[in-house]
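Lab notebook, design round three. We kept the backbone fixed and only want residue identities now. Task for the bench partner: fill in a sequence for the structure below.
Input C-alpha cells:
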C-alpha cells in the first residue's frame, strides 16, 4: 500500500512539473534607438526577442514602411490636424505606464512565436495619433466620424450620428491553420443610439487574447466604416505595448 501511494504521489508530481508555465512580457524597452527615431530596415528584416518575432516590411520601389510593426520613441499626441502627421506617434504620447518605447502596428501585421506551446495572454493597445486625428477631425482622405454629410450617401441619419467604427481583430494560427476564436477591440465606436456614448480610445487599454489558445502566430486585421473607391480612408495604424506571452513547459 505504501509503495502504491508513493507511486501515485510521484506521478502527480511529474504531472505538475509538466503543467508548469512561464510568462514573459515584452515591453520593447531593451530595443536600442536614438532619440526621436523608429525601427527601419530596408531589407524587411523582422525585429525579435529570443522567441517572438515582429514582422516588418519595407517597400523598396517607393521607399517607405509598408507593413508589420516598428518600435519607436517618437512622441506626438497633438489632437488637431495642422499638417501631415508622422506615422509613429500615439495619442497617449508615450508607451504604456509612460514608458519610453512602444510599437506602431499596421493592418495585417504578423507576430510569430517560436516556442512549441505558446499562449498570447494579451497586450496594451491604443490609437495612433495619425488615426486619432483622422477619426476626430477628418483629413484630406478620411472624414470625421459621425459626420453624416461626409458619407456622401444622402442618408437621413441626423448629423453626428453616423454609426462609424474603427476596430482591430486579432486572429490566431497554429501550423498554418486559422483558429476558431478571434478577439475584436474597438479603437473607436460611434454606433450607439446615444451620441454621448460615442468614443475614440486615447489611452492604453488591455486586450486579453487567451481565448485564442495555443498559437504559433497571430495576425492583426483592421476594419473601418470609412471606405472609399480605393479602400479604407481611415489610417490603418495603432499602437501596442507590453506584449505578454505564456510558454508551456509540458513535455520538457
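Proposed sequence:
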Amino acid at each position: 500500500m505504501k509503495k502504491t501511494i508513493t507511486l501515485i504521489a510521484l506521478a502527480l508530481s511529474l504531472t505538475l512539473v509538466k503543467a508548469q508555465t512561464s510568462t514573459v512580457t515584452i515591453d520593447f524597452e531593451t530595443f536600442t534607438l536614438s532619440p526621436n527615431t523608429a525601427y527601419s530596415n530596408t531589407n524587411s528584416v523582422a525585429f525579435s526577442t529570443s522567441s517572438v518575432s515582429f514582422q516588418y516590411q519595407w517597400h523598396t520601389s517607393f521607399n517607405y514602411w509598408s507593413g508589420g510593426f516598428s518600435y519607436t520613441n517618437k512622441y506626438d499626441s497633438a489632437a488637431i490636424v495642422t499638417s501631415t502627421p508622422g506615422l509613429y506617434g500615439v495619442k497617449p504620447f508615450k508607451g504604456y505606464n509612460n514608458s519610453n518605447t512602444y510599437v506602431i502596428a499596421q493592418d495585417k501585421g504578423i507576430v510569430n512565436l517560436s516556442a512549441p506551446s505558446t499562449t498570447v495572454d494579451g497586450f496594451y493597445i491604443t490609437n495612433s495619433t495619425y488615426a486619432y486625428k483622422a477619426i476626430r477631425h477628418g483629413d484630406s482622405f478620411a472624414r470625421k466620424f459621425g459626420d453624416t454629410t461626409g458619407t456622401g450617401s444622402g442618408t437621413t441619419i441626423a448629423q453626428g450620428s453616423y454609426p462609424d467604427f474603427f476596430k482591430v481583430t486579432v486572429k490566431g494560427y497554429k501550423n498554418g491553420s486559422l483558429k476558431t476564436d478571434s478577439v475584436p477591440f474597438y479603437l473607436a465606436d460611434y454606433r450607439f443610439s446615444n451620441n454621448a456614448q460615442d468614443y475614440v480610445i486615447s489611452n492604453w487599454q488591455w486586450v486579453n487574447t487567451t481565448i485564442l489558445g495555443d498559437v504559433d502566430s497571430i495576425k492583426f486585421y483592421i476594419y473601418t466604416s470609412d471606405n472609399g473607391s480605393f479602400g479604407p480612408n481611415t489610417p490603418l495604424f495603432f499602437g501596442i505595448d507590453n506584449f505578454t506571452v505564456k510558454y508551456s513547459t509540458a513535455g520538457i
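Keep this in mind before ordering anything: The longest strand covers residues 177-189.
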